[in-house]
Amino acid sequence: MHFLSSNLFIPFLLLLVLSSSLALSQNVQNISLGSILTTSGTTTSWLSPSKDFAFGFLPLATNSSLFILAIYFAKTNEKTIVWYPKEIKSPLFSDSKLLLTSDGLLLTNLNNETTRNLFSYSGTSYAALLDTGNFILAAADSSPNWQSFDDHTDTILPNQLLQKNKILRSHLYDDNYTNGRFALSMQDDGNLVLYPLALLTDSTNSYSSYWATNTVGSGNQLVFDFIGTLYLELDNKTHINVTMSNLSTDEFYQRVTLDTDGALRHYVYPKDVTKNGSWKNEWTVIQTVPLDICESINGDIGSGACGFNSLCQLDQNRRRSCQCPPYFSLVDENDMYKGCKPDFVSPSCYGGDGDQVYDLIVMYNTNWPGSDYEYYISYDEDHCRNNCFNDCFCEVAIFNGRDCWKKRLPLSRGVISTNVGGKAFIKVGINSSSSLDPTRQHIEDKAKSQKVWFLVGLPSLIISLFILFGSIMLVVKVRSSSSYYKRIQLNSSSVGSTLRCFTYKELEEATNGFRKELGSGAFGTVYEGFLPLNLKTCIAVKKLENMLKEKEKEFRAEVQSIGQTHHKNLVRLFGYCDEGANRLLVYEFMSNGSLTNFLFGGARPSWNKRMEIILGIARGLLYLHEDCSTSIIHCDIKLQNILLDNELTARISDFGLAKLLKPDQTRTNTGIRGTKGYVAPEWFRNAAISTKVDAYSFGVMLLEIICCRKNLELELNSEDETVLVYWAYDCYKEGRIDILIGDDKEALGNFEDFLRLLMVAIWCIQEDPSQRPSMRKVNQMLDYTIAVPSPPDPFSNQVSNNQAL
């Protein structure tokens, strides 16, 4: 969010306040008393003068014989609704009719039965739908008796206000316009907040907010101005930007909608695609608040972004997807918010389970942050699994490196995300999962046949069979009560936490004699290969050089530490080889190569893809710095060490190798670790290093990604442009951001985002490490969670306190 002083907006605000009375002096097509709308026939809607908006009956996408009365965009491919009467709780039938009377709008059927006054305002003279999308019931003097801009639903349009004690409220589902679970409230105390609502009783009781401007005592009103910026106006006339488009409202339709999943999204749609060739005839999301709805809704009370016992996950468009965990199903197939129920008899400490046996199913990057009843510190994975398995109260255990949480139903705030990390062990009944375990089913069938044979066998064998049977039952009991349960991996791309120790011969065969070289660097050479016994799994085998002369046990301990990292934005380590003088690491293969090739190997990547890559790298570094069992400083963040998988997701490679290399391993002549152009200044001062060296390298790389040029260009005509970090700051200081952007039209169309990323990068490349943000703060700035202050000169040590981040 940006804090900007703006007295220039005062005239606009005065104009906006007067808009109710001035609006009718615009080009208006009056709708006279007695006018009628029907669901079919010649008059199903009333249009604004520009024909951009319509007010009338729209058939539901799921049932064309049912209708909703609404204001909607009339020229878009999809007739997108921006307002609907909240008083109507159910869809309308095809015989519905709307009549404009002197008492307001009258809803009835074709036979004039079951009448309903939607907006009862006596003295109505006429109505009008303005080009802003505002529908007005006007009095004889043209003053509005009622207007839709004051009767908010889930959408706010340019030139519209949200004043104190007013809310936007989502509808329930895309095809269900009853009240939903989320609200954006301009509170009387001046704070603008997003919060979930208690749904089952359709009450207005709210849970804890999941996003807020924190402007208690200073906020005034929310304004969506005519240039496409949604901002909170403060009492002192400064404002906080909530979303902004940098696109002209003359060329793009715009709206900000509180969607059904609780995210506030800013949408744009080109009015003429021939004039905006890079845009499609569809609504495009240019900003989302908050960025991750699944993880943002985390209050102590309530189910979270989805229902109880369910899991929330973002899809590729960053929209929420709700799902039940394995062997759970929706309580109501038509309503995800009612949560999920187990499809098996849940464990009980109070009897009733009979001989039911339970298994644990493993899910990666999964957690339900609520519902904890026990917490253990410094546990290993086996202890965590066994503890839950033997606890009749425990339904789920969460293991994250060294901590273990036990949970019971109902589970709340469920989320699947690489930011979560760790594993969830879900206890399910054996009867529900035996079909997944043919070995166990065979054992049980064999036991039944043995029982029949036992009953009809010779009396002389009764004693021996009894002893044998008792022994078998004892083994089964021991196994079922300890660690002998099935571990099912639901993520096919995941590998168990125990790394495989390969022999040198195995890797030599897997790489066909180390024949195909993928690349080489300071740490060694990388070869392509295929996992033994699984020729479909492509791997990258790195032969390490200049290794520390450690004992075998210490080397394996370090590798195991690296192998325990599990994150979407890290390259996965499959195993290693520690045989004689040979030290090799086996990684998953990244099919799209390095970020260097992606940025500079052909056409310039799209702005949105570059943004995704930036966010992915930042989250991966945060995980290494703060979420691993032991913090890992990468020490060599650069474009070449960012690899791209099949879906062009950014994956950090070579992390943790700093632990394994000699202290003097370097790619420069300075006796330090790192790569020229990315090395933090403290390396040159022989000062102690911290995670801030990675923040510095990230800042350099961030400039490379947004500017699409290398950090060091020796062949440029201008000497001032040779070093990117110096040139970028000079352009920022002189207000010449356009020079940095150059001919990048997409970056120019996202100017505010470009400027924000540039400011984040300048903060990261501060020479004084204490002035640099942590990667957690970097992520918060990238996610719009906190504002990005103007950065100081990064190459001056004279930084005042009020300039520190």
UniProtKB/TrEMBL annotation:
Broad EC category: transferase
Lineage: Eukaryota, Viridiplantae, Streptophyta, Embryophyta, Tracheophyta
Keywords, alphabetical: Transferase
EC number: 2.7.11.1
Organism: Dioscorea alata (Purple yam)
Name of the protein in its database record: S-receptor-like serine/threonine-protein kinase protein
